[in-house]
């Protein structure tokens, strides 16, 4: 995979413009959709232990923390400092500082397409999960995202990401697939607020959805 070298440095993530927080309308609707769909697929009860990998400044963390016992983990000290989660850990996905089977769910959003070893990251997420692993990643089959990946060198890591390809990586990491499909229509940093009522009526599952949602179990 042709990964832009900047993504391998802590300095890049320290200076990286954060995603909109969950308090912003577009980001708030997206994270609500992600948490609801993931909860349905995993059937986890409120208060279950969850590790969010690549949590950043907490676009998803607030919604997860309202329902689960959350630990937010990220490589960037700067982004993590802005995360509102009570429990925050600075580390990378390939060296998660937790025992095996430590969490009911381990989830990552917009992380895997920045990595050269997706299967290895999923395998490490599987190690610390007692039950489920989930991920939300860009959908290469969306024409706008495909164009974005071709034009922006630092985003070319998204180009392999189809539902079939992502499911294959999960199976190679010894995970069993519960769901893996194109999902949603919201870009947290780009979608105008006035479009949200219309977007909320659209089906979440669609071949050209902006993201891929993976839910798998051990």
How would you summarize the topology of this molecule?
Elements: H1 10-15, H2 25-42, E1 49-53, H3 61-67, E2 69-74, H4 77-81, E3 88-90, E4 103-109, H5 118-128, E5 129-138, H6 143-151, H7 163-172, E6 176-183, H8 196-199, E7 211-217
Parallel strand pairs: 1-2, 1-4, 2-3, 4-5
Antiparallel strand pairs: 5-7, 6-7
Characterization of the model:
This protein has 218 residues and is α/β, with parallel strands linked by helices. It has one domain (5-217): Rossmann fold. Helices cover 32% and strands 21% of the residues. The protein has helices spanning 10-15, 25-42, 61-67, 77-81, 118-128, 143-151, 163-172, 196-199, and strands at 49-53, 69-74, 88-90, 103-109, 129-138, 176-183, 211-217. The longest helix is centred in the N-terminal third of the chain and has 18 residues, at 25-42. The radius of gyration is 16 Å and the shape is globular. The two termini are 26 Å apart.
